[in-house]
Amino acid sequence: MVNEKEINFFKKNGYLIKKSPDQISLNKLQDFVYKILSKKKKSLSKDKKKYFQSLHKYITKKELNNFRVNAITLINRNKNFRDLYYNSSKELLDGLVGNEIAMQKKINLSIQIPNDTKSMLPMHSDIYAGESPFEVVVWIPLMDVKKSTHSMFITNPKDNIAINKAITKSKKLTIIKIYNKFKKKFKFLKINFGEILIFSPIIQHGNVVNTTKETRISLNCRFKSLLSPYDVFSKTHRNIPHFFQPHTVKPLTKIGFNFIETVNKKKFHGSL
Ligand SMILES: O=C(O)CCC(=O)C(=O)O
Ligand SMILES: [Fe+2]
What confidence tens digit (pLDDT) does each residue in 194-250 have? Predict the structure, then answer.
C-alpha cells in the first residue's frame, strides 16, 4: 500500500520512488529484455545487470538505434510484458492514480550508452507534446541507476514555475540554454533495480549525455485513470484514446457503458 507519507511526498515533489512488492514481475521484465538483447548481441556474462551495464562494449553507437527499435518492437509484441509491467507498478498506480487503468499502447525502452549524444532527451515536460495532465509515467530501471548522468533528472514543482515561464515566454533561449541556466535546480535520481519511479510529466525532466562508464537501461510507459479526460486542451495524437488502451476495467464500468450503447442503439432489453 502507498502510505500517507508517500502520497504527500508525491503531491509535493511530483514523483515517488518505491520498492515494488511484485519482484517476480520485475525479474520477468528484466529477463525478457535480457533475452531479446542478448539474442542480438551475445552476452559474455550470465549476470544480467553486468551485461546491461557493459552493453556499450557489445554495440557501436551506429548500431544502437536499430538495436533499440528492434527491442521495442519485440517488447510490444508480447502481451504478457504489458501485464508484468502493470503488475509491477500496480501498488503505486492504485495509490496515486486509480484501479481502473488505461495504459499507453507502446512501452518504451531507453538505452543510454556512455558518451552517446544521439539518444538524449533534453529537458521537457511531456505536457507540451499534448500528454494528459491526468497521466503518470512509470519508469522502471532494469539495473541499479546511479545519481548522475547515468540517470534521468527531474525538477522540483516549485522551480518548475520559473522554468516553465522561461520555456513558454523566452524567444531567444534554446532548451539547452534554459537547462544550463537552471542546471542547479535539476536532481538526478538514484533508483535501484527492484524500485519503481512514478512521476507526473507536468514536471520538467530529461537526461543529458551519459558521461559515466556504464550503460543505463530502463523502461517507461504512461498510465491514467481509465475514465479521466483524454482530450484536455488540444486534440493531438497523444491524448486521443488511441494513444492509450484500457488495461483494467471493472464490471460495473462495462455494465454502464453497455447500457448506454444499447439504449443509444434502441436495443436495450434489460440484460447486463
Ligand atoms: O529515461 C529518460 O532518461 C527520460 C524518460 C522520459 O523523458 C520519460 O519517460 O518521459
Ligand atoms: Fe519525458
Answer: 999 999 999 999 999 999 999 999 999 999 999 998 877 665 655 556 789 999 999
pLDDT digits (tens, 9 = 90+) for 24-40: 999 999 999 999 999 99
Task: Please report where in the chains the cell 515536460 appears, as a residue.
Answer: 125
CA distance 108 to 172: 32
pTM of the full predicted structure? 0.94
Q: Beginning with the edge strand found earlier in the chain, give each strand of the sheet holding 153-155 in spatial order.
A: 186-188, 153-155, 205-206
User: Beta-carbon neighbour count of residue 83 at 10 Å?
Assistant: 14
4-264 has which CATH code? 2.60.120.620
Q: How many residues does the chain have?
A: 272
Residue ranges of the domains in the chain? 4-264
Please work out whether the CB of residue 13 comes within 6 Å of at least one atom of ligand 1.
no
Residues with beta carbon < 5 A to ion ligand 2? Answer: 126
